[in-house]
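From the pipeline queue, job 12 of 40. The input is one protein chain; the requested action is below.

Action: predict structure.
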Amino acid sequence: MPARTVRPRCSRRPGWRVSSSSVSDPAKTVRADGRALDQLRPVRITRGWLDHAEGSCLVEFGRTRVLVAASVTEGVPRWRRDSGLGWVTSEYEMLPRATNTRSDRESRRGRIGGRTHEISRLIGRSLRGIIDYRALGENTIVIDCDVLQADGGTRTASITGAYVALHDAVEWLRARDALVGEPLTGSVSAISVGVVDGVPMTDLAYAEDSRADVDMNIVCTGAGDFVEVQGTGEGAAFGRDVLGRLLDLGQAGCAQLAELQARALADPDGRAEL
């Protein structure tokens, strides 16, 4: 039987396991960019970035920047017609030069890549976790997330910005008496967490994510409930104790983002930052 190949992004030996005994003391660890282990990168939300979309924002997590647009159309997909229920979906894409080397546009390849499809579905699921379809009425809201620049955490930044754009699109419908009730049951945000060099940390930049032993994305409501948890032992298995620490970091990070979203939505200029 051939030996298991270790992913090049991680130097850990096969069978290595992350446990509480192998995790460094957080109090004695400072990240390369000077952040504390539980500290997010500077995060900024700017609403109304686009003139024509019913809801839009630019969301920035450090050097990662995502432009989000929410578009409203009357009616729902054919399979949803005459149900009295609305629909929310999402599409995710990266600009060709969002990373350090250019990638071809997927439209030129004639197919959507697996990663793009996966992230689009994740964003849609996250938003649908806080939507009352009946209150939305037979209206469809499509969220487009376009990554302008990527430095880790593009999917979590997209979800965080998507909620803000969705909120403004719902308000656009409300102003036109097009709602049956209150479609939003809460807010939703997302953050990445992981274990790098044996240390659990929050909001991984690309330099950290690319060598993480454990990589996880946490999606939470504003009330702190989990909508989705995606976790992978990239180069090592991990114990339940480490999982608990990562979930705690993720919940705490999402709580900060929920507060930032609320400030951006309340600000007259539509801006807020951490």
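Job complete. Residues 54 and 82 are 24 Å apart (CA to CA).
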